[in-house]
Amino acid sequence: MTYVIVGASAGLGRALAEKFASQNNDLIIISSDLRDLDALKNDLQNRFEVKIHPIQMSFREYPMDFHNLDKVIHEVGPILGMMLPIGLSDPSDNPSNNENKTIELFNINLICVCIFINRYLELLKKNKSTIIGFGSIAAIRGRTRNSTYAAAKRGLESYFESLRHFMSNDPVTVQFYMLGYLNTNLTFGEKTIGFKPVDVNILATKIYNNRFQDFGKTIYPIYWKPIKILLQFLPWSLFKKIKF
Amino acid sequence: MDLKRYFKETSFTSFDRSVSLITLHQRPDRFRMLEDKQKIPQIARGGGFSFVPASFSKNILVKEMLSFNRILEFNESSKIVVVEAGITLGKILEWSFKKHLFLPVQPGWPGITVGGCIAANVHGKNPHKDGTFVDHVEWIELFHPTFGMKIISRSNETKIFEATCGGLGLTGIITKVALRLKDLPSNSLIIVPKKAETFDDALRIMKDNADQDILYSWHIGSTLLNFGKGIVRVGSFSNKNNFDELNVPKIKNLSSDNKLLPFSLWNNFSSTIINTINRKIELIKGNIEKNLFSGLFPFIDKANVFYTLYGSKGFNECQTLISENQSGEFLRDLTKLIHSEKPPLTLLFMKLFKGERKYLRFSGNGLSITLNLKNSSITLRFLEKLDDLVISYNAIPYIIKDSRLSKRVVEQCYPEYYDFKEILKQIDPYRIYKSEVSKRLDL
């Protein structure tokens, strides 16, 4: 049984790869740099009794090249799940972005993720499996900063709602995690407005333990739930003054 | 990739708490972040357990290597494992115990990284038997913006290899290391505490047991009462596996940033009382059997409390390696100096050493003497006098232990100080890799 992890070379993706491999699951790990994947593959194969298949693939541009992945997916047998902890934010992302940056941010955070999942839906339906997507608290309410990133992540949330609805009669669990600040390089050096970024290994364990639970959407860490409500109902006169 | 995005300003404190400053910090977690060809002044950092500020400095980018912690290759027949430099000794042991293998040279803390072990050329519990860390290194992959990645070993780029082992991280960033592991004779160690009334007693016992798996002595340092009395710990592998499974426990890491008392609870009075009681208890308990992990890291349960008791002013540690034929005489002169200056000396440790001296590497044949003291003006005056004693005996001080060592002392004690500088100039003409230690020692 094999899981697919997109964005496995660092951050939450790497933590998920380590957690799932430690539980003796074979993996297809995907990222844009094969050197990082090869190092991870060697480490996991040395430490655990697993087979790891690294695939170099970019989500920045469309059309995507599925050739190598298709080949491996058909070789490894049943796919038990796909996790896509992938995303790119840019500190200068705001509504005045140029065309290239806007397209790149939409590709990596939304369009390529949807295309990727759509391609393998029929395959996933054949067995009990899970699809896990990841959003961001940046998408709670649109503001100047991270405008494209937040729009893409809100779009992704909607896509996962539809996906869950579409797969409701199939043995496929669809989950969507809206994530707060995680202790990865994405938050390193960024203002986290007093929130301590959380450990990705703890989150990876939680995701592993709940991988087949049909809860739909969740927010992590949980303390973002009341903040989300507060932000959604904050009067415009106050919200427009928010600078973070 | 905009690498500058992944910088932040972080406050770093040396473990002995002598230096604290804010500088740029980066945590590379993928190769393209590591292989940054920009010639920004920088230094690699591992676990951050060095007593001295060897992994940070003002206006120097700190590259924290902890994400590069993977086991890359393993050859069953040669027992050579290739690891990334940010891997901790604890992680290697966790894996190697399952294969009934281990790395004999283990310094005091399992959170220390392999890169750090090489940069400081650390030693274990019996350097006379096991040598120092360099003796277990087959090759190193080193990154430097001027030459990219390079494999260095005893047969390839020998000079750079020798300068990198014990080179304080100044020759470049160590990225990969091939280590030769050893078969694990069993998973338990028998530790025999032998009573030593004097340093000479301890020296004699150690010479009689030089080839044991574990061998070091600890002594009461306070001149108030029982000065010099101690215990020689002699340990050897048990003939059979007496523990079910060998695990590496989860341990709360040591931190130099703990909230601390503004004063030290260690002084000549408290250290005499505590160490005298500890000595009596250890001798009454007699021989004990420990699992290998506890045997390799005997200080692990007590280290946090021990260092925290020094308070916010921290402590001083100095370690000196003196040649074998002068060790007795040096110990007598050291005893005289301690009695005349009465420094707040908490503990004194001794180990026998065997190895080759090279560049700034703390290695050689002889006796190592470590002094652990409360930081105070009396201590600093005492250590200055000790420096002169060390110079007069042609001994070497361990650079990675002592935050106040001066260029004057190091250039006089290390005959290859200028050769090391010359190699740095050749491989790093822009002097990209710098730390507070390298600045202080004018390297």
List the keywords.
heterodimer; A: 244 residues; alpha/beta; seven-stranded parallel β-sheet; 17% strand; globular; B: 443 residues; alpha+beta; eight-stranded antiparallel β-sheet; five-stranded antiparallel β-sheet; 14 helices; 26% strand
What is the fold's blueprint, element by element?
The complex is a heterodimer of chains A (244) and B (443).
Chain A: E1 2-6, H1 11-22, E2 26-31, H2 34-47, E3 52-56, H3 67-76, E4 79-84, H4 99-125, E5 129-136, H5 147-166, E6 172-179, H6 200-209, E7 217-220, H7 224-233, H8 236-239
Helix pairs in contact in A: 1-2, 1-6, 4-5
Chain B: E1 7-13, E2 20-26, H1 31-34, E3 42-45, E4 61-64, E5 71-75, E6 80-84, H2 89-98, E7 101-102, H3 114-120, H4 127-130, E8 137-144, E9 148-153, H5 158-164, E10 173-180, E11 182-183, E12 188-196, H6 199-208, E13 214-220, E14 230-237, H7 268-285, E15 288-291, H8 292-296, H9 303-308, E16 315-323, H10 327-341, E17 345-353, E18 366-374, H11 377-392, E19 396-397, H12 407-413, H13 417-427, H14 436-440
Parallel strand pairs in B: 2-4, 3-4
Antiparallel strand pairs in B: 1-2, 5-6, 6-10, 7-11, 8-9, 8-10, 12-14, 12-15, 13-14, 13-17, 16-18, 16-19, 17-18
Helix pairs in contact in B: 10-11
